[in-house]
Design a protein that fits this description.
This protein is of the alpha/beta class. The protein has 6 helices and 6 strands. Strands 1, 2, 3, 4, 5 and 6 form a 6-stranded parallel β-sheet that branches. The radius of gyration is 16 Å and the shape is globular.
Length: 184
């Protein structure tokens, strides 16, 4: 069975992006094993502590390298991806072996897709940045079919993500396409 690691860009337990990830998990069902990467203990990127990598970084790398694909669900903070997610990607994109001229990282060649829940722009800038990072980090980005949700005032007021039938259809399409992309 294929394994997909979900990375939620918001560390908040009741985040809208975590809700969307749970919806995606329900759509995938038993067709793949889903895990959520806990990166709350990953320290700030610092080359002084890069080799050997801190334990939290090693654990995150191991979980990523054991996966067949990554699905990132990210909000947008100030027209960019959240700092914690960027920090995680910085660590994961660093060479596994110090001085490796090929710069092989935990992300090299890893299939990835993105979704985003945000304000009026539906995290569009964050998703764009993630696509740019994926290219730079030599990941296999599944372009197109990204699920983008613009939050309603009601969602903000109730702290609940409401998906329209159109939203659900887009998420289902993305899930089906990603399962195919990773070869399930």
């Amino acid at each position: 069975m294929k394994k997909i690691v979900f990375i939620v860009g918001s560390l908040r337990e009741k985040s809208f992006n975590r809700s969307l990830a749970r919806d995606a998990e329900a759509i995938i069902g038993k067709r793949a094993e889903i895990t959520y990467l806990d990166y709350s203990s990953v320290p700030l990127m610092n080359q002084d502590i890069e080799y050997p990598a801190p334990d939290a970084v090693k654990e995150a790398r191991d979980e990523i390298m054991a996966a067949d694909g990554i699905w990132i669900f990210s909000p947008e903070y100030n027209f960019n991806i959240p700092g914690g997610l960027k920090n995680l990607l910085d660590w994961l994109s660093r060479p596994l072996v110090q001085g490796d001229p090929e710069r092989i990282s935990a992300l090299t060649g890893m299939p990835v897709t993105f979704s985003g829940v945000g304000g009026k722009m539906a995290a569009s800038t964050a998703r764009k940045r993630l696509g740019e990072f994926a290219l730079f980090m030599k990941m296999k980005h599944m372009e197109g079919n990204e699920t983008a949700i613009a939050l309603s005032a009601e969602a903000f007021a109730t702290n609940t993500l409401y998906l329209t039938s159109d939203d659900k259809r887009r998420l289902e399409n993305q899930a089906e396409r990603f399962l195919s992309f990773i070869g399930t």
